[in-house]
UniProtKB/TrEMBL annotation:
<dbReference type="InterPro" id="IPR013974">
    <property type="entry name" value="SAF"/>
</dbReference>
<dbReference type="Pfam" id="PF03102">
    <property type="entry name" value="NeuB"/>
</dbReference>
<dbReference type="GO" id="GO:0050462">
    <property type="term" value="F:N-acetylneuraminate synthase activity"/>
</dbReference>
<dbReference type="InterPro" id="IPR013132">
    <property type="entry name" value="PseI/NeuA/B-like_N"/>
</dbReference>
<dbReference type="InterPro" id="IPR057736">
    <property type="entry name" value="SAF_PseI/NeuA/NeuB"/>
</dbReference>
<dbReference type="InterPro" id="IPR036732">
    <property type="entry name" value="AFP_Neu5c_C_sf"/>
</dbReference>
<protein>
    <submittedName>
        <fullName>N-acetylneuraminate synthase</fullName>
        <ecNumber>2.5.1.56</ecNumber>
    </submittedName>
</protein>
<dbReference type="InterPro" id="IPR006190">
    <property type="entry name" value="SAF_AFP_Neu5Ac"/>
</dbReference>
<keyword id="KW-0808">Transferase</keyword>
<dbReference type="InterPro" id="IPR051690">
    <property type="entry name" value="PseI-like"/>
</dbReference>
<feature type="domain" description="AFP-like">
    <location>
        <begin position="291"/>
        <end position="348"/>
    </location>
</feature>
<dbReference type="Pfam" id="PF08666">
    <property type="entry name" value="SAF"/>
</dbReference>
<dbReference type="InterPro" id="IPR020007">
    <property type="entry name" value="NeuB/NeuA"/>
</dbReference>
<dbReference type="InterPro" id="IPR013785">
    <property type="entry name" value="Aldolase_TIM"/>
</dbReference>
Length: 348
């Protein structure tokens, strides 16, 4: 298990739900605060942003990803796209305070050294590492030196690369690590999800595990919770039609709330794994189960044969599983057809 703020995260705790605002604020602090409000409304445990300085993140000649071009509808450089999506460090300070006031955990993913240092300086509770930086060992080592819990996304990775990242962090003394299975397409097609890999990661490395979802809709993150995800992360937006690279693959506020409610319903239904009847089933049990009854009128002194027995509702009498115990017994009174049979109506 790991601890982020006051929340314990692990197999015996509720799923930790991260509402991923990312850059869906479009560089506007007012929109960022509205996203916080919507995450609180939906019931998420944390709201997560992305912190970066474009000059330190990307070269001027780096091209946009295909999904970014498809979602925005134009082709530009990554730098120009990202520059429009930045929030200043002072705005992030304001945003963190706003989250504290709203009683939701503030998280953000740093994409380079300077932003990691900044987030540490304002007392971020944990670091979320993007899938793109899973193999960025220098950044992982730098963040590990800040001695905070780390949530690591594993899109585009194989197990060996996850192992290298974990070894890097553990060699730096970090034990509070969670690994999220992820498919780095936006949106991700269902046939690419491979949701069972989430538990493969958990079992292979003995870590807190979860799922960062990029599929459309809420079905797959709810399914991940049913499979045992300790953490669920999902992009959300105020409006899917807004301009920007991630809006189209995000949930709108009501959808996010439906996802959170669905995950909580799954958690309630999972129970503790002990197979036993519920107290609420007792009345149904008495109606739906059957008791041993007389197949015909039986006279006092008759010896009971198999064909003298029948099995009918209600189930508040002698269970049919005891039928062999009645065969060969002598009736000590007259018994009417359909009368429930008990051991007391037979001679010892």
């Amino acid at each position: 298990m790991i601890k982020i703020g006051s929340r314990i995260i692990g197999n015996n705790s509720p799923c930790f739900i991260i509402a991923e605002a990312g850059v869906n604020h479009n560089g506007d602090i007012k929109l960022a605060k509205k996203l916080v409000d919507m995450a609180v409304y939906a019931g998420a445990d944390a709201v997560k942003f992305q912190t970066f300085r474009s000059e330190k993140l990307v070269t001027g000649y780096a091209k946009m990803a295909k999904y970014q071009k498809d979602n925005i509808g134009i082709e530009d450089s990554q730098f120009n796209m990202l520059k429009k999506l930045e929030l200043s460090y002072s705005e992030f300070k304001e945003l963190k305070k706003y989250c504290k006031d709203k009683e939701i955990i503030f998280l953000s993913t740093p994409f380079e050294f300077e932003s990691a240092d900044f987030l540490s300086s304002i007392g971020i509770e944990a670091f979320k590492i993007s899938s793109g930086d899973l193999t960025n060992i220098p950044l992982l080592e730098h963040i590990a030196d800040m001695n905070k819990p780390i949530i690591l996304s594993s899109g585009m990775a194989v197990l060996g690369e996850i192992e290298e990242a974990l070894m890097c962090l553990k060699n730096k003394g970090i034990d509070d690590i969670a690994v999220l299975h992820c498919t780095s397409n936006y949106p991700a097609a269902l046939e690419t999800v491979n949701l069972k890999a989430m538990n493969t990661i958990k079992e292979a490395f003995g870590v807190v595990g979860g799922y960062s979802d990029h599929t459309e809709g809420i079905t797959i993150p709810i399914a991940a919770a049913a499979l045992g995800a300790n953490i669920i992360e999902k992009h959300f937006t105020l409006d899917k039609n807004m301009e920007g690279p991630d809006h189209k693959a995000s949930l709108e506020p009501e959808e996010l709330k439906q996802m959170v409610d669905g995950i909580r319903s799954v958690e309630i239904s999972l129970g503790n794994g002990v197979k036993r009847f519920s107290k609420s089933e007792i009345s149904t049990m008495q109606v739906a189960r059957k008791s041993i009854v007389a197949f015909r009128n039986i006279n006092k002194g008759e010896i009971i044969k198999l064909e003298d027995l029948d099995y009918k509702r209600p189930g508040d009498g002698l269970s049919p599983k005891y039928y062999k115990s009645l065969i060969g017994k002598k009736a000590n009174k007259n018994i009417n057809k359909d009368e429930q049979l008990t051991f007391g109506v037979f001679e010892d």
